[in-house]
């Protein structure tokens, strides 16, 4: 049997980080087993579903590399098929029309509450003759759920979970206006799409028992369920916006993370492989099994994600990183875009830059000095180094460096050292002010590397600006 998994988000907002992990687990399990990963957009809530949210979901999944193996299915477009299944259940006597009014249902719940019973539908119309139906009431269709015994689910994460059928009710599968409910649509779509494994958050565990009743009523194979624990914040509370329950686009655009780092981090939120922290996509596909996901909720830790992102940045191709930060750098230096020559400068300097940054935001900020044309922005500590530099230092450096015929790291190193010796200064007393005038910062890649990347003309221009 070919494993078929699916990710089925509702397009009522962004692709949040918990949904991204669910998609990742479904994608990995399909790849690990040689199966298929499908995408379904559950857009039946027409008031809240928006085209923008659909695009945000597609965009987020594409950025993470979690592409589906077939075209996406849109649930709303299949509403006639859902209603068809409801009619089949009615014809087989496994579903029935319920004519209870909203007032009657409210009274039913209040009575159950007063008597200390579960507040569920009491089966008023389960075996009642439809000829007794009151006029003017549009009936809903309810599933005839089992009333005796237990409903049992052998969950790949939670183990065997058992619920007494008497705790479940005859839930609505078709509303009075003829539209299908979530429970009906999900089961019909999963069956028709050939889904064999349903991997989702454990907040859906109670739904699984109700859905199993519908599978059984239709005589369909019940998929294998795996309900994964939700992600909590560092304080153990349910993940919220203050913890990082933001859209995937925020991790990319506002925080500057790489997709492979986000995937790696989400992978280990509930699953692990020994002491391995950095796990490539190829390793993840080879090692991942949904049965190895733990039952306990994982805690989101921005510090760990940021450190992991730093590791992936150091491993990343220099040109790719420049492409990633180009627009950010352009915004920092006040231009619409950086040109090919500026990109080449950044590529040349990237090996030293990426060792010092953990996010693309940091990388862009630390890179901007290389391609700034005009007056360099200087931070407070750098300005202090410039102000306290020995008198005549910058003029001496400019004159010595200008005399160099070959602009190599070995030559500029020797020239700066010779200047320090001539002025009877320790190297740091020369290198630190020099760093400040060339980068505008008290921290940067090695100063001689910086000088080579900037080139002779730009190096001298910046030194002479502060010597003026």
Model description:
- This protein has 468 residues and is mostly helical.
- The chain folds into four domains: 1-68 and 229-315, HUPs (Rossmann fold, 3-Layer(aba) Sandwich), CATH 3.40.50.620; 77-183, Glutamyl-tRNA Synthetase, domain 3 (Alpha-Beta Complex), CATH 3.90.800.10; 317-368; 380-467, Arc Repressor Mutant, subunit A (Orthogonal Bundle), CATH 1.10.10.350.
- Helix content is 47%, strand content 10%.
- The chain contains 19 helices and twelve strands.
- Strands 1-2-3 form a three-stranded parallel beta sheet. Strands 4-5-8 form a three-stranded antiparallel beta sheet.
- Helix 2 links the parallel strand 2 (36-41) and strand 3 (73-74).
- The chain starts with a strand and ends with a helix.
- The mean pLDDT is 93.
- Its EC number is 6.1.1.17.
- It is found in: Cytoplasm.
- It holds the Pfam family Anticodon_2.
- Belongs to the class-I aminoacyl-tRNA synthetase family. Glutamate--tRNA ligase type 1 subfamily.
- InterPro entries: aa-tRNA-synth_I_cd-bd, aa-tRNA-synth_I_codon-bd_sub2, aa-tRNA-synth_I_CS, aa_tRNA-synth_I_cd-bd_sf, Glu-tRNA-ligase_bac/mito, Glu/Gln-tRNA-synth, Glu/Gln-tRNA-synth_Ib_cat-dom, GluQ/Sye.
Kindly list the characteristics that best describe this protein.
468 residues; mainly alpha; Rossmann fold; Glutamyl-tRNA Synthetase, domain 3; 4 domains; three-stranded parallel beta sheet; three-stranded antiparallel beta sheet; cytoplasm; ligase activity; aminoacyl-trna synthetase; Glutamate--tRNA ligase
